[in-house]
Fold this protein.
Amino acid sequence: MDQSSAIQIPRRNKAIVRSFPYREANLALASRDQRVPTPLIAGEFHDSLTGLPGLGYLPGVLRGLIGQARSSHQTLALVAFKIDDFRLVCEAYGRAEGNKLIKSVASILRAQTDPEAIIVRAGTNKFIVVLTGLAGAPDAIKPVQQILDAIAQPRDVAGQELRITASAGISSSPNDGDDYETLLRNCLAAMHESMSKGPGAMRTHTGNVALDAVRRLRLRADLGRAIENKGISLHYQPQFEVHGGRICGVEALARWFPEKGRAIEPRVFIPLAEQTGMIGALGAWVLQEACRTAARWHVAEESPPTLCVNVSTHQINDEMCAIIRRAIEEARLAPERLELEITEGSLQGNLEGVIDCLKQWKALGVRIALDDFGTGFSSLSHLSRLPVDRLKLDRSLIQGLAADTRNAAIVRSIIALGKELDISVIAEGVENKEQLQMLRDFGCTQVQGYLLARPAPAEDVESLLSSQWAIRKTRFEAVRAASQLRIAS
Ligand code: C2E
Ligand code: MG
Ligand code: MG
């Protein structure tokens, strides 16, 4: 692909940092602009060589960021970097060259990360970077690799051209822990593991999913049983037309309420099902159950809402077409009432294979939506080739709408682009009236979010649909009666 012709949609991940008040209060402390005098507390809170905060800055700031990430269902990653062979450089060329190296790595970290990203010096040749606003743990890998590549570029050390590398370890929340101590321990453990594999390596913490190995194995077994025994249920979240407020669609969302303990979020159990190969069985059940439920929503005189079902990347394969056909035939659901949501991430890799599969699904008469749109790096040039009917603007773009003019520009452009390409656009995660008003002004015609309705069991959504239809029917009857009166007179 010609990279120069590809328009990239940048990931926006600042909102979470912006909205965190602790950061505002500590802006001076965390300031990365060395021209600004930094009134820092001496010692572990400030490193005079690099101008970065020290490790003591992290616990307080991280507590708030972890909470923010949890409430916005986003992932936060803690990345530990250690300069390889630092002692060797100091022994060979002296401490001054060592210091130059540290300053240079600190500048690379600054240059390679978002201007608001948190970077601390955590030891002689060790740094910690906090990445926020990630859609999932794998999203940390690309930026970390870019940093490692930048550090490994040839550099001048005492007149010699040398290649100095760094090793990195990543832990992410919620997967590898949801408190500062656990995340720090896990990212350092991952860093030491990568150091043991040789210079310039990167490792993610292996005890994924906020659990140690034992709990993880148990969860895996529990999930298998829950799938077999129908321990997974579905909630449904309505989608609305901006003008008139009609419910135009309903998204099916998997829920796992184990017999004991707290509900487990889809962001935890869906990746687990994917890793263990259980997603095929789970996905097929979700599709069948959702189709059966939606088939009941047909009421005379009203066009029933579209049923939206999430499809994992692992389900984009040759068998899926037969699974979809069986689900709609068994439920007697009109195929055009079913919309399958794939994420932008599914397009990475074998794009041609994905397009082939989507075309087969489209041939059945179902619709396709591109979920979480605007979070990945999908090239807009792909859009014209993809058989998609709808783009779902990701929640992270909607969150930053009012505060970030660049976010607003991206959202407006995607809505305009959808119109040009005749692809409808729905905004996800609309939480307040300001966002709704801005979306309306931008010409967005459909919305979904807590402001309007949260995901709920099928019965609740059914009664919402019935009451909406009853109101519309009464209005319709009133209008018809009025027009008949006019005709008669
Ligand atoms: P998604 O497909 O993007 O679904 C939207 C998610 O955003 C849902 O989270 C929904 O509850 C949440 N949401 C909707 N409106 C708002 C809002 O205004 N504010 C906030 N903060 N959140 C909002 P949920 O149910 O936790 O699902 C998370 C993700 O898990 C889904 O994201 C989807 O990617 C995946 N998922 C859920 N069910 C299934 C499934 O049956 N199959 C597959 N493959 N993935 C699923
Ligand atoms: Mg979805
Ligand atoms: Mg989404």
